[in-house]
Amino acid sequence: xxxxxxALSEPPVAGDATGAPRRFFRAVLRNRKATVGALILLLIAFxxxxxxxxxxxxxxxxLYAPNxxxxxxxxxxxTSLGQDVFSQLVYSTRLTLVVTLIVSLIATFVSMIVGxxxxxxxxxxxxxxxxxxxxxxxxxxxPLLILLAAYLPPGVTSLTVVLCITSWAFQARQLRSQGQTxxxxxxxLAARARGERGIYIILVExxxxxxxxxxxxxxxxxxxxxxxxxxxxxxxxxxxxxxxWGTMLYNxxxxxxxxxxxxxxxxxxxxxxALLGTGFALVNYAFDEIGNPAxxxxxxxxxxxxxxx
Amino acid sequence: xxxxxxEVDALSVDYLTESGDVRAVDDVSFRVDEGEFLxxxxxxxxxxxxxxxxxxxxxxxxxxxxxxxxxFHGTDMVRLGREDLRHMRWRDYSLVMQSAMNxxxxxxxxxxxxxxxxxxxxxxxxxxARGRSVEVMQLVGIDPVHLExxxxxxxxxxxxxxxxxxxxxxxxxxxxxxxxxxxxxxVAQQSLMTKVxxxxxxxxxxxxxxxxxxxxxxxxxxxxxxxxxxxVAEAATTDAIFSEPRHPYTRGLMSAFPSLRGPRxxxxxxxxxxxxxxxxxxGCRFHPRCPEVMPQCLTIEPDLYAVGQTDVRCLLxxxxxxxxx
Amino acid sequence: xxYLGRRLGLFVVTLWAALTVNFIIPRVxxxxxxxxxxxxxxxxxxxxxxxxxxxxxxxxxxxxxxxxYFQYLGNCLTGQFGxxxxxxxxxxxxxxxxPWTLGLVGVTTVLAFVIGTFVGMISAWRRGGRLDSVLxxxxxxxxxxxxxxxxxxxxxxxxxxxxxxxxxxxYSIGATPSFSxxxxxxxxxxxxxxxxxxxxxxAGLWVYSMRNNMITTVAEDYVKMGRAKGLPNRRVMxxxxxxxxxxxxxxxxxxxxxxxxxxxxxxxxxxxxxxxxYLFYTSTTDHDLPLMQGLFLFYTLAVLVCVxxxxxxxxxxxxxxxxx
Lengths: 309, 325, 324
What we know:
The complex is a heterotrimer of chains A (about 300), B (about 325) and C (about 325). Chain A is mostly helical and about 300 residues long. Helix content of chain A is about 65%, strand content about 0%.
């Protein structure tokens, strides 16, 4: 499902690249949602990169009193095996984040190739690619994920593969629409006249112009990948010995953490998943507003007369 | 002089943007008498459409009335309560928009769009509503069988006429038209304007007609208001404006249109582009493009000076206006 | 008409794809999963069903893979989806659990759609109001939270801590199913938390997309015209703006069904609610392949039906689409 049905009305001009990062940065700072979202993402990235700086216990050592609630030495309590929940959470951040980013990148990339090729080549190729895309869009995602994951060896690699297979179709149509509006623009006709080959045109001319839509696609995807990855692992289709938020949730659920007294063993990683998803979603929401000024908050002057409807 | 039908007094409209407020309409005043046809002309971006919507009380955020009054038969609509205003809508004054394709609800039939208006203002329903709908369609010359059609099923000219028919449902005293002919070809344009004038003579309503097309104005209006950069540049009767344009901008507009019967002459047009209203020029807003610019034009903002029957916003006439007083 | 033809073509292709996925997976899965499944089935399942399974897997039967494929397709088209590990026909197993999921998902989906669309429409209509600045972003954020977390939170707060609502199941243990008021009340009590989890997550998405559609629609000239005609505010909002803004939502609604069904699997697992989702989950842990595949097909079919309904609704509402 599209986070925004409104395609960017005017794609940025090709020569815009130099000013764009700076303008984007400033736009992010001015928009509150974007700032909050960006801060969340930076925080999580920091934790992923330097877990040791944040956590105060080794994540998997079963040294402590099991099933304890939160305390000053164990911020989120301990697991049923006597491990420190908080440290586990912190150390699980890296793998979770890496998987999310890799899947989102691959899926966006494939999506782009499919969308742009479809738009640029047109004809039968377009129809075939779109039918394939539609099929993947209609096939219900979680059931397909479960079906696939149940038959592959549990682990991060399978998880990544399975998520990529079900995510690439998500944005393909939007990217194709964008590609179609660009297709006959002057700079492309010039490239064709110069005799450049199709692949070159696609990669060097079209793609950079689509950066903002690609970033938006990446962000939208990331929101859902975070959730789906955790959900699959929660259902038991991951490898419970790997350090990820989803596997923590599975272990906690198996040990009935909610009732056993250390609810934070489940709520902690769950909240972390929600937080990461929210971070991506906020930046994405703000991205929609930056790209489409009609969506921005509206100022109203309170006047003594009638308020305008 | 009889009481005017509509009196706009020092009306200003601002757009509230993130980088500050932009004044799109600046201190505009004019009046419309009963049965009069007033043409408002100007380039794109001069604020004429904004002015129109402000008069019709249809501004939406970020646009807002920043000051002034719009009095219809003496009642100031800007300060009127929402319900009272709603009662005035369509019965006292109605609106015809530029593109009927965009102005008509694509999901409702023409009949449905007529009847919901009728129902909203006095409960005419069923046969009564049907009867009135047929009447107005015949007024504009469309076969009433098209009442059951959806907007996309009608041709451009028919859609525009249907919009005019809709505007006449309550035989209002004032019909405001925003470039109703721009989307039509020349032949359809001519036929529509003839019909409008004919209806005006029969039913006696006044018209405010916004356009960028001087030829239409010259043929059909009684009085003309020339707008530039959100301000009134010149206001006079049609005859006066066309025979003796005073403001250099008006003169420029005249010289941009060839006359079909007059001598052949060089088409001059007006060099330059309209100013950015967020940062208007100092002094007279027209001075960067004015062929008769004087040193004081860069610093002094001209008021509207009355010269004979014309009001003109140009420092060229300061002396004449003073002498008249 | 041509459009309808193309849509039906798409449906057929999708169903075929789902069937093919079902066929391919056991054959490409690494290790001896297939053998393990067959072994676990051998004791309990009747011979004919076992044979059909062998054909599908291509084990123990010396056949060309394409022949097996077409035999398998033939079986599916005639409604023979095999039996579960307990030797119960897959179709009847699905049939018995269907009402519970239908009730849960059906009601929550409609509720979420109605609430979400309504709130989105109103919040967009009053731009700049307090509703618009608070509700859409917060609901949108809530909708991005995975449904299992909402479920966990609800369980923790309402079932564990407050003990207001039951933790699991679709009715209390020991109660006998009937249409009595007490039983129905019991069922409803058990359905509240799972239903709430689903509604919370899905409504947010509707609010966001309806609001964005409304904002674009409100800028249209015909909405301005509606106001100009002096129609009551509510009329313009519903009849002029809302009616047009909802159209893209309808197609989105259908595509969303896949997401909602996935959410129902998670929710049923979380609450041990014995519907199709829970069945699907247990079939994976039991390695009950025919059941899994049958359910997967069922889910795909459900989404297709929703897409069809959405297409019909669009045709009904939008006079322009009837011409095409």
